Amino acid sequence: MAVLFPKWMNVLPTLGAFAALGGAGVVVAGGWYWATPDFFEVGYMPEQPGSGFNHQIHAGKLGLDCRYCHTKIEISPEANIPNVATCIGCHAEGRVDPTKSLASDEKVQFIRDAYEADESIAWRRVHKLPDYVRNFPHDAHLNAGVSCYSCHGQIMGMPIVYQSQGLGMGWCLDCHRAPESHLVPKDRVTDLIWVQEKFSDKVQQQIDGKGLFDSLELNPPENCGACHY
Ligand code: HEC
Ligand code: HEC
Ligand code: HEC
Ligand code: HEC
Ligand code: HEC
Known about the structure:
This protein is mainly α. Helices cover 43% and strands 0% of the residues. Bound molecules: heme C (5 copies).
């Protein structure tokens, strides 16, 4: 499933652009600047196979809950990517409304091909921590009331998923030291529209983050061993 894509390749288009401008000095300065996690990875958006997968259509417009596809996310550290069978449930011949703009056959043919060949679709990994970081626990964060929105941005509005946060160590620790303003009731963690609205400056105080923190007796770790081997 996950095809590893070295993060440094991310910088190639940028370097290419600078090189095209002809400034060798700029290449060095630019490379150094973008090498810090926040600038190195934010916006990373690898091209996906086939016609890709559109979260804006499926999670936004059709309103499918994240857990319809990322089924294990609350019970396992790992956020699983759905297999082809999940897609075929709707995209097998004739199952999608033929009057829709979907242009069903053409755009979803790569799914049927993969299904028939009994192969998985080689989705390219977007978010990836370095190997020296321990297994990142999705379950612990979701059960603590940290929404996908806080770490992945407004996925419901993304035609193609991109990385919206730096995922550097400082980013993890900033939240661990003061998570109250990032907490939502557990049953809202996948309700990204609701969360975005509540997190907008106007209404943030409507969520009692301190109350949630206390009632769940949360204890986000800051010791090295929690995140490193
Ligand atoms: C109909 C199935 C489906 C639904 C519903 C769905 N996803 Fe996905 N998701 C996928 C597939 C397939 C991929 C892999 C392709 C890609 O990265 O675009 C993916 C990838 C992702 C990724 C990027 C993974 C990586 O490589 O780093 C994130 C983050 C994500 N989904 C979050 C969400 C969130 C949040 C929701 C709910 C708002 C959601 N998904 C709903 C199928 C789904
Ligand atoms: C619950 C049903 C359902 C599931 C499950 C589902 N889809 Fe879809 N998908 C749809 C519908 C309905 C449309 C058409 C939406 C429209 O045209 O507005 C669509 C559209 C698409 C399109 C065309 C998008 C475009 O740009 O027009 C692609 C590609 C696609 N789906 C891929 C997938 C993949 C890959 C999966 C599995 C990870 C998947 N779908 C799972 C219902 C589903
Ligand atoms: C506290 C931050 C955080 C929250 C909350 C969070 N994620 Fe993630 N997610 C990450 C990080 C970090 C990674 C990369 C993990 C790694 O490389 O081990 C990731 C990776 C993923 C992946 C890729 C997994 C893979 O193996 O390809 C998917 C899919 C995903 N997240 C979906 C979601 C969904 C859906 C939600 C909400 C239900 C969610 N995440 C909530 C931080 C978060
Ligand atoms: C937006 C807030 C937020 C971000 C960002 C965040 N965390 Fe957390 N994390 C929490 C909270 C809240 C808990 C407390 C969970 C508990 O006490 O049950 C937690 C707990 C943990 C735990 C302990 C899990 C357990 O089983 O007790 C680990 C490990 C962890 N986080 C790793 C990370 C890593 C690595 C990153 C960065 C890639 C990260 N977190 C980013 C909020 C966050
Ligand atoms: C909450 C999780 C978490 C804790 C606690 C944590 N780290 Fe990290 N650390 C990370 C993540 C995630 C990265 C990867 C950052 C990146 O991708 O650049 C990282 C990266 C690093 C690096 C590589 C250089 C860098 O800054 O990117 C070193 C060295 C490091 N950590 C040491 C430590 C030490 C020493 C401690 C204890 C004082 C510690 N870490 C505690 C999550 C954590």
